[in-house]
């Protein structure tokens, strides 16, 4: 109910009918008066609903700077940026991109073809183009690729009065002003002060006297997921990015980190579901099938290995046909418990919790969990089969198979992500369907191996 009320409030803030009518009737002043009073997120939400003919009027009614604010809040599929920019006059589009915060501009340009990027950079203001070029060459998914150069920096050998003067001049273009970074004579990061520090201290106080030199920073090449974790751990609003000589290159703000966390969560979920990319909704079944087929083909061959393994125990099945009844039960239990252990391990790696505790503790804990759950489930299934089939040894066989399977499957679910992480492979690749199929193989081997070994007791 709360979500519905929130949506109603949003709709009440946007007079869609008035905005649509003003576009339809070409009433520019009415449209601007109403539209520019909206929050940029609401502007972007309204813009997404417009047809191309109405969007073309928006480009005429808004300046590139006003459009840049809207564009920074526009949540569309990556490939759609190219289509929206193609609707604009190239000069208008280039001017708009130059007015965006540098990190947001780089995000947009990264979705375009190289020749388009070069074209926009050639048209736009030389100073803005140079700032964007500096960030474009950083490797994707690193701190350098998501940082912004729109920050406020001051010198240690100046007063609070002069620092406030600099802050007032640079605040309109800075992405955040809550942290002001202090640089030494070689432009290296020497410390940081907060906006509060500037406000509460006297005008004649030297910056060096109030600078906090215990700085937490990140390297320009550090993985964006590590950056997000550090901002979360320290509860920062922004984090400075430095090179190997500690020169301040840029900052990463908390809103950029929220985008990273959403992107990483989506990426991990995609892999856990054995889907290549779930960032965007596929409009075509062919496109969706192309992304899913590689994993499905791998799983198909693994499934065929399971079928082949069962075929090797054909003689055992011919002698005791009732064994076939319990194959789905044992395979399903193995897949379920393996996926649970996998989720715990992948989450621990993703959040960094496993970096703080001994990984052997996780392995021992999961082995103990498998032993306890396997014992309880094994006893229960043994009793059910005994009363159902009247065969005590069959019940013990199935129960014992479940006990062994759950221990092995739980260990596999925990160990595989840890091993992959050790070799610098994304542990989310050990997806749910993948671990389930592997555990199917293991469970069938255990089940029929035990059945073959103790065949004389079953006949």
UniProtKB/TrEMBL annotation:
CDD domains listed in its UniProt record: CBS_pair_Mg_transporter
Q: Does the keyword Ribonucleoprotein apply?
A: no
Q: Which UniProt keywords apply?
A: CBS domain, Cell membrane, Magnesium, Membrane, Metal-binding, Transmembrane, Transmembrane helix, Transport
SUPFAM superfamilies per UniProt: CBS-domain pair, MgtE membrane domain-like, MgtE N-terminal domain-like
| Residue span(s) of domain CBS | 147-210, 211-269
Function text: Acts as a magnesium transporter.
Note the subunit structure: Homodimer.
Spell out the family assignment given in the record's similarity comment.
Belongs to the SLC41A transporter family.
* Name of the protein in question: Magnesium transporter MgtE
Q: Which organism is it from?
A: Cytobacillus eiseniae
